[in-house]
Each structure stands twice: as C-alpha cells, then as structure tokens.
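Handout, section 4.2: multi-component inputs.
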Amino acid sequence: MDNAIFSELESESIEIIREVAATAAKPVMLYSIGKDSSVMLRLAQKAFYPGPIPFPLMHIDTGWKFREMISFRDRTAKQIGFQLVTYTNPRGAAEDIGPITHGSAYHTDVMKTEALKQALDLHGFDVAFGGARRDEEKSRAKERIFSFRAPGHRWEPKAQRPELWNLYNTRINAGETIRVFPLSNWTEADIWQYIRQENIPIVPLYFAAKRPVVKRFGQWILVDDNRLPLESGETPEIRMVRFRTLGCYPLTAAIESTAMTLDEIVAETLGATTSERQGRIIDHDGAGSMERKKQEGYF
Amino acid sequence: MDTLRFITCGSVDDGKSTLIGRLLYESKLIFEDQLEALKADSKKFGTQGEHLDFALLVDGLQAEREQGITIDVAYRFFATPRRRFIVADTPGHEQYTRNMATGASTAEAAVLLIDARKGVLTQTKRHSRIVSMLGICHVALAVNKMDLVGWSQLVFDEIELAYRRFAEDLSFDTITAMPLSALEGHNIVEPGHADMPWYQGPALIQWLETIPTVDRDRARPFTMPVQWVNRPNLDFRGFSGRIASGSTRPGDSVRISPSGVATRIKEIVVLSGPNTEASAGHSVTLVLEDEVDASRGDVIADATHPVESADQFEADLFWMSEHALLPGRRYAALIQTKSASVVITHIKHHIDINTGAHLAAKTLALNEIATVNVSFDRLVPFAPYLENKRLGAFIVIDKLTNETVGAGIIHFALRRSVNVHWQALEVTKAARAEMKHQRARCLWFTGFSGSGKSTIANLLEKRLHMEDKHTYILDGDNVRHGLNRDLGFTEADRVENIRRVAEVARLLVDAGLIVVVAFISPYRAERQFARNLFEPGEFIEVFVDTPLEECERRDVKGLYAKARRGELKNFTGIDSAYEPPESAEIHLRTTGLAPETCVDEIVQVLRFEESIRSRT
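Output:
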C-alpha cells in the first residue's frame, strides 16, 4: 500500500476534523483508547499543527476497561498535552453494574450508551467525533460522515440528511447534536498500515504476548485481574494472544496470535478470514443489534 | 495503486445490492463469520430460495432487510491486485433518489444496472441524468438478469441501442454495455460465459480496473478554499484547507479571492516538517509572505489564474425535499467553505426526466431537476463545476428545519453585478423572522411589582441569545425613563403607558424579533388591547404569579414601604387594583421556584410550539 492512499484518506479525515472545528459551538472527540482512536488523535494533531487540538477528548469509562488501557490513556494525554475529560455513569457506579453481574447488553446500555448521552448533555457538547469505520458493520456502512441525532440523541436511519460532495451541512436546531466519523472510509487494514507508517503508539494489548486466558463460548477471555470471577473447574491457561479490537473486558475476546510487531500484525490482518468485530460479544446479540443500539444513542 | 470511487445505480430490483454482494464475495472479502451470518439471514429474510441472498450483505438496515429494498446508500470497500475500490450501493426507489445523489456526488464512475426483462425505465433515466449532471464521465451499462431472458443477444442489443439513443444529450465520455448475471456470477470476474458466446467485451471487474481516472484536478491551476485560519499564538498565522486543484510550492505567487490581494507562499506546514510541494486533494496549512487578510470561505489561487467572484449564477439544481422549491424564498447555502444566504430568482426550465425536454415551471418538486438563476447575498469565489467540482458545487439548506434540500452545480456567473436589477422581493415579517431563524413573538410578562418579571425576563433573554435568537426586552422602568417619561401612574397614564409599549412591541415583532415585555400591566383590558395588535399565536401572556405578601416581603426597591407610608400613590396592590389574567398562556407560580426553572418552563412552551409548527 503506498503513501498516495494515505495522503488521500488522511487529507479527507483532516478536512472533516477541521470542518467541525470551524463550525461547531462546542465539539468533543470521543477517545476510546483503541487503535482507531489513536489514529484519529494523530489526525487531529495534524489538522491543527502547529497549534494545539482546539477541543477536548472524552473517554467514557465503563469501569471495565483493561488496566493497560487506562494507564496508556493517561500517559498519552500527558505526552501530547490534550485536554482529557472522563466520565462514568454515576448510577452505574453506585449500583456496581458490570457485564458479569448484569449481562453484556445491560452493562453496555447503562455504562456506554446511557453514560455517553449523560456526558454529552452535562458538558453541552454539540458535535462529537467518533472513530467508527464503515467497513466494521453493516449499519455503519449506511451512516453519513456527519450523522445527525434528534433531541435525546436518537439516530433516525430512514431520515438521514443527503450528504453531497465534501459539503457538510452542520446546521442544527436546539437540542440536536451531530456525531462525526472522520475515519468512515478507512478499512481495518488501512488503520494498521497507517499506524505502522506513522509509528503511532498503541496499547500493548494489540501485540501478541503470553497472557492468562480462559475459554468461554468458544472465545478467549483475558483474566485481566480478579474482577473476572472464574467458574468452577475453570483455570486460566497461558497462551500467546492479542486483541484485534479493544472494548470492555470481558466483552472483547482475544485471538491466538504470534504477531508481536506491527509488520506481523499487518500481515495477519491482510490474511484474516474472520471480521474484526467477531471478537465483540455485543454484535452477536442478534441481527440489527448494532443499528438498534445506534438508534438509542450508542456510537 | 489508485482508488476508484464508483456507484451502482438503476431502478428498483435491478439487482444492485446483489451485484455488490457478489463482487465482495468473488474478491474474497467476505469473512467467515460474515458468511455464516449471511447463510442464517438468507434463510430468514432471503428472496433467492436456496441461494445465498447477497443483497443481505449490503442492506444493513433492519427496515431494508424486512422489506427487501435498499433505502440508503451503503459504502463498501474492496480491492483487486490492480486497484482499490470504494463502492456506493445506492437505492433504486424514486422516493430515495436523494440518497442515490449522495453516493453519486463523490463517485468517478457509475455502474448502471438494467433488468434485462424490463429494459430502460424512468428511474434508469432519472439516475442517468443525475449521474451526468454530477459530472461522472464513465458509465457501465450492466444488463443484469441475463439468465432470465435465455442469454439472448437480441434482448441485450435492443437495450443497448435504446439506452445510447436516450443518452445522446448526456455528457458521458464513454458508455460500455455488458451483459451479466449477478445471481449466477456470470461476466463479473471472468469475462464472457459459455452461455453468451456472442459477447466478447470485458467483465465488470476488468472494466472497473481499467477505466481511466484522469487526474484532471492536479493539472489545473492552483486553488485552495480557506477552511480554517490557524492562529494558535501571535507568532503563527496559517491558512488551512484542502487543495481543490493544481499544486503549489513555497515562493509561488498567489492571489486571494474575493479581495484580490496578492502575496506569496512562504511555507507549507505539516506535522512532519515543512513540505516542498503540495497538490490537489492534500489538506495543508499555508503560511503567506505578507500579513494579508483572508478568512474561511476565501480562496487562495495561482496569481496568474486568480479565481473569479460573483454573486449571481446560472446553475443546475436537483431538489431533494418534499417541500417544493419556492423562488424568492431565502435559503441557506454552502459553497466550498463559504456559508451564504441564497434566493432562486428564476426557474429557467424544468428538465423532463424521460425526454430531456425543457419545460416551464414555477416551482420544483422532490427529485426534479431544473436550470435556475441563483442569487447569493455576498460575493462568492467560484469556478464552473465542469472545470472545478470543488469550486462549482453548492448545497441549499432550509433555514428553519436545517435540512439539506437542494444540490446545485454552477454553469457560469450572470455578469450583472455592475448593473444590478434586484428581483423585487416581498420583505415580510415572516421573511425577516426567517432570516433570523426564528418566529417573531411577543412574550408579555405581567405581575406585581417585585414579582420577579425583570429577573426572569433577563435570564430568558440570555438563554434565547445563547440559542442565537434575536431578542429585545422592553422593561417597565427603562421605558419610563425615555419614551414614557411624560406619564405618571394615574389610571389614564397607565393605559397610555401600556398602549405605547404594546405598539413598540408590535413594531419590533414586525421586524422579526422575539420581544419580551416586562410590565406590571395590571388591567385585563389593556393586556387584551395589546394581544389584539398581534396575529394569533404571536402574543404569549406570561403571568408571573408571586403573592402580594411575598412581593412586599422582598420589596427590593423599597417601593412597598413607601406606598404603605403613603409616599407613593396608585401603587398596584396597595391602593390600585391588579386584575390577574384568566387564561395566560404561561402561568408561573413562582413560590419556591428558582428563576432558572421559570425560564425552563417558558423555553419548553416555545420549543413545543415550534415543533408543532414544523410538523404542519
């Protein structure tokens, strides 16, 4: 893959990011600490260089992120010097809602979707960047780059605004918000090759290492710490694993891999026979589940 | 390796989604878990019997899968060893044509599907006209479902001939007709098939791999619309944007439009260090030699080919709203990075989708195309769309709903800036209010002295101001310092006081403002008089209901004490009557309520009425 493609993808993303900065009243960039967020962060740096990123980054902390993700987040914020806002749903924290005790659907609903809506309302953010890509999932492939949310953050997939050329209509009425996806036209392979080309720091969990895991529903779940109660007869075994995608633990499964360098990860990605979201338990809740979650305000 | 963006289009059920599913499948881009899901979905929703229903790979919305149709454009990605592709699968239903235009606007080629059994349909023609209008040069006429017409060469030839005849007045460079079966996979990857020995042309993939993507933009003179002025500190001032055409290097002479100021490029700044050259498609930040003035919406261009500016154009317009285009009405517009207000001053002709005939028209309905004259409220740097897409395309936005309602391409400027004959436009109250993006209102606050009218009114105004509403407060005390300084507090003077204020409020509402009147206004008759000056729904009476005891307890200005001592005559509530409203639109029982909560209540009522109005 040559630089011309990156120049094209990169330039399109930078244009989108600048357009928001130029037109939004109070934008925010959602930062999930994953590989896509890391690329989006680099693009934001490029968009405004030599100035700083003119909006804060926000992390919705479900309380169930891998420990390495949180330390990576804080290190990155310090290094780059962006303004970091974090938010956890206070109700969820008070009731100790977790994926194991309450199930993945409820946990995601309260700690991600609900929390995101609360945080956007609390700070009055009118435009929020997300790192979603169209190649990830069928309903994402249908979404505009500038995706409008009715009051209450609802997505109405049947009533999306036309989006012609690079002319993004950013006008909204009171109570409406926009989700903006600068990485819409990137593929998983593009993301990895760009990380390699630009030498972008990413969470070490993406690289294969020997880690303690247990097998559940045919997938490898990392035993990150004692938040994961072991079932009777279950003993963690040590395997060479890595993550293709990082979400909430234990809702994201690891894959067996020996890819310890970016070159090896790129090679593995190009030869992959399953999609990256296979490791996301949330997508398997039923056909159309992502669309439903998005309608309710999930990113 | 370059990237080709293309669309699939055509009428309903011509097999667009199936074709894309087939392309993804054949280029080994369907992952195992996705194939498993497809098998399950094909059983549940499939329309192909025992076969895999490839359309389900692309129709990602629940409503689409249930109805077996495509509603919105889906973007998919695949690659062959020769090229990368971004394909937009667009819906065929006429109702969703605007979503098809969304996909087509960024495409360089179009695969136009035709059902071999049905031939060239109205929707085939509509899509062709839009594809042509948007400047797509290469079209593959994919005659699909050949399996259902017995692989007949005669059928194929007739369709090709009919289409070429129709497309004579369209502006395509090439039309390549090819027979195929997306369902069976014939002539998709491997050229030809034993069933069609008469066909010697390319397979679809070969066509996609080989059509030229001439980089016209790069060969043209340098232009870059300013998107963002980068000024992080006093020492740096850069102009950020995406280069629309040509290329530039440090030292190049440039001219800024519309100001016409000339300077040179000092530096091309990117994160990895200064660049020696940047060209069309690149997002860059330019530092200029001189301290010149340029802002978002201006265009920096090669000094020997400066970009023209004008405010009136002939353009083609594609209408995308259920509400018809109204000439003379003010819409918002976005052209490159410049926001403006526009009026379609004249519909020259509406274009008949079937025949291409030019028809007279007073308005433009959903999915119609017309050639129009459009007038911007400011000078706009531009280029004809066919020369420079980025400088010649604009969108039209409804100012009230903020919906994108039109897509336009500029043909040329109407050189009438010198000798301007403005269209005689009716400037009405509604037009003035619409320009302010609001509905003009009079919010009439009534209540005892000290009830909190001014406090709430001031908070309300701040809130509305933050929402970009244009407001004005008429406050009892302030008006008495000027306009009504000659009036006292007798009953007659109070009546005159209210009359004047009501008339002023009416003038301000006529100017399109949201006027907040905060007056004790104790008498029903005068409030009724004020109400009668306004149109139904315009006048909102707000009863600030604070009990007299509470007002007297607060006595912020010490007036109640004075009145009790007999130093103030005719004081409302003490020795002058207050007639509470019987049916105020908003009744604020303020006891125990924070002023902010009162404001919330008022704002809610305003929003509610707004939402009702936008639905009618």
